[in-house]
Amino acid sequence: MSVKPRMVPIRNIEMDYWNFSIDEQYDNRQNSLKTEMVDEINEIAEDNYDTFKKKLKIDGLLSEIKKNYDDYNTFKSQKEIIEQQKKNALDKSVNALEDQLVKYNKVRKWKTDLSRSLLKEPNEHDVLLKKLCHEETEKAYYASPKGRALKLLDESKKRCKHLLHAGLDLNATVHNINLEMRGQKIDLNLPENAQLMIANK
User: Fold this and answer.
1) Rounded distance between C-alpha atoms, residue 109 and residue 131, angstroms
2) Which letter does DSSP use for residue 166 in this model?
3) Tens digit of pLDDT for each residue in 154-183?
């Protein structure tokens, strides 16, 4: 009489192990097959390429793109060369103007800043030159007889300050300051009796 083998149930831990092991083994084999297939697919695709390309009937479009691509890049390289040439010419012109103004400035002593950023912008030229013109006009005006009135006024003010600290009595000091100011057309507006008192002291 034969003995039937006893059925042993699969425990959870063994179920988990075999599930993992099966997945791992099949995944490894699948990756190996895919690698072999990829190499073969690459070879077949390379052999099929010319036929595939003819079927698409796009040779004319590809040729047109190649022509336009070459034309564009040729133009771009020439454009960069021309752009650099024109920039060099601009820089040379700006340098010449800058050198000329620097020479003038050694004699004229302008206070206005001769900024290179202004020199290379044609729209700023008149702005800069008007500032220089105004500066020279102002300097010449103050050196003229009319402009000297400011200098004389300043000197008169200093004399008044000296009189104020000269140690004279009040009446004499105010009298002399009044006379000095009148010479500069400045009226102290002193009361008449005060002026008489000052004059009679």
Assistant:
1) 13
2) S
3) 889 998 899 888 888 888 888 888 888 888
